[in-house]
Amino acid sequence: MTSALDVTEGIDIEPSSTDLVRQVSSSLGISTSPPGFHTPPWTMSGSHLTRAVTGGLTKQLKPFATEDIKILLLENVNVTGRTMLESQGYQVTHLKSALPEDELLEKIRDVHVIGIRSKTKLTARVLREAKNLIVIGCFCIGTNQVDTQYAAEHGIAVFNSPFSNSRSVAELVIAEIISLARQLGDRSTELHKGTWNKVSNGCWEIRGKTLGIIGYGHIGSQLSVLAEAFGMTVIYYDVVNLMALGTAKQIPTLEALLRAADFVTCHVPELPETNNLISHREMDYMKNGSYLINASRGSVIDIPVLIDAMRSGKLAGAALDVYPVEPGGNGDYFTNELNTWAEDLRGLRNIILTPHIGGSTEEAQSAIGIEVSAALVRYVNEGTTLGAVNMPEVNLRSLTMDEPNHVRVIYIHRNIPGVLRGVNAILGNHNVDKQMTDSRGEVAYLMADISSVNVAIIKDLYQRLESLSSRIMTRVLY
């Protein structure tokens, strides 16, 4: 078989036998892969393996025939991401919706990469069945739908896109602020039914009003700039001291923000601390006739409390883009069978309900597709963990075509005393060109580039690292 890299004079690496070549190719990379899975990108020249050399060019590290890498993309991942992965030669299966857990358990068993958005739940039970999985791509901001701790403990990296859709969400919130202030949803619904209802009572300009932002991260800070451009006064609350943009002002407590703001909008992650962040007490703090918006996570607002506040007139309006339980696909599912209060919520006046579309723009989804897919390719092909949410961030300079007989060793292990001594005892008899290691909690990640190797050396390195008691996963990239 001729590799695309065989473009100039090759350097020979002596295997001990043809059987050895087959054994190494089936053992490199993922320790749980079935026999015969990997085909290294070497070419056969008589009894020799050859690797092409081209001065200065980055060498593509692929310890496998790329068509053997199986990727499952769920929830209609953007075409930009699919195209990038397919261009690597991977086997990509693309589905438009999330899968019920039983189907997911079946599908995930033989895939090496899975890409999801916010609906798919990758619990420990699901990941336990994913024997070949090495990496998860979350094509969205959040990763709370993944058991990231279980994934890390089993050598599975998780990547996301923390800010690619920030502008889209911020623009949606601005649109909702104006729509609520002018009661546009109600007027539009009435006119669709044939009712002409031209009123000004309870309708406001947003200029001069105070916007309170809970969570001043990527989205909150962009929203702050946009709101000021409309003439709003911006205050924000965050658990971390953050530099304000424009003339925004950080408020020391959530209570102080709620008492001062005309519009309150939530932009926080899903954490135990943010569960029902806005409930009875917080609703009492809010101004009479104020507005509440949530485009973060469905658990942040106590929705029965919100319904009562809307009915009593405490709130003049609300906008929700996220919910505690959301359907796995499009359809007539937003009923009391999904959430017991759904029909009460739907019956309220001046409330905007949208189906988790904050980041659903062509621009955002294209950017997310590119960002997450690029991270997946780098991890699969080079082992780079930059941007991983559950692994130490480790990166080495790319190997070049001037380094043809080098191997990159990745050893993911439990973070316990004495591991490096054992690993270096294995690597110490070889020429280690560069090495980096870092830890995050109970998991550590070591990457080393070793030169002057042949097939027998690679096989020996792999097997000796696999035998260490600290091992979580060993990968060898050549």
Outline the structure in words:
The chain has 478 residues and is α/β, with parallel strands linked by helices. The protein is elongated. Residues 1-55 have low confidence and may be disordered. It is built from 15 helices and 19 strands. The strands form four sheets. A seven-stranded parallel beta sheet has the order 11-10-9-12-13-14-15, with helices on both faces. The chain has a five-stranded parallel beta sheet with strand order 5-4-6-7-8. The protein has a four-stranded antiparallel beta sheet with strand order 17-18-16-19, covered by helices on one side. The protein has helices spanning 18-27, 79-86, 101-107, 124-128, 148-153, 166-182, 184-192, 218-229, 254-260, 280-285, 303-312, 342-346, 362-382, 419-427, 455-466, and strands at residues 10-13, 43-45, 48-52, 70-73, 91-94, 113-116, 135-138, 157-159, 210-214, 233-237, 249-250, 263-266, 290-294, 315-320, 351-353, 407-414, 431-440, 443-451, 471-477.
